[in-house]
Structures are given as structure tokens and as C-alpha cells.
Amino acid sequence: MKNVKTAKFKTGTYKIDLLDGPVFGFCEDPQQTATLHMAIPNGGTKRDLATCVHEMMHAEGIPDRYLDEERDAAIYIARLLWRMGWRKTAR
Question: Does residue 11 sit within a domain?
Fold first, then answer.
């Protein structure tokens, strides 16, 4: 996967960090901080893909009621992408 340092989303420009630890991911709230950070997993599993989609949906301003619930939309999107063959590749 190409190393991306920043990304622009609807709510602002985020500094992207890759995680290898016990935290799966996070996306800072633009209403609470001026410098925005997003952390996504460094791995290549289906769960890692779902976490990436989930955090990016937060950055796009998708309401929490669609994300942080039992029926997280990011999981369904990641499952479809996985079935379509989306995988992390080394570069």
C-alpha cells in the first residue's frame, strides 16, 4: 500500500497515521481540534479494510447513527469490496 501522509475529506484535511497496535482506528472530530488526525490499520485483513472505510466515513461527516451501531455501514461496504477482490498490495 502506498504511504499516504494526508487526505482531504468533507470535514477537512487529515494527517494519516498507520497503526500496528491494539487500537483499530480513530478519526478526530473537527469540532474539537484544529489539527485533524486519522489512524487506520497497517494490516490487510477484511477487518482492517472495514476499519479504514469506517474512519473515512467519519471524516466525510457521515452521522454516527450509521457507523457506531450494531449495523455499521462500513462493515457491509468492506464485505462487498472484499468479495470484489479489493486487497492491500505491497508497493
Answer: yes
